[in-house]
Amino acid sequence: MAEKELPRCGWTQNHPLMNQYHDVEWGQPVHDDRKWFEYIVLDAFQAGLSWLTILKRRENFRKSFDDFNFELIANYDQNKINELLADEGIIRNKLKINGTVTNARAFIAVRQEFGSFDNYIWSFTKGEVMVNRFKSMSELPAKTELSDRISRDMKKRGFTFVGSTIVYAFLQAGGIVNDHLTVCYKHPDQQGHDER
Question: Tell me, what CATH number does 100's domain have?
Answer without folding.
Answer: 1.10.340.30
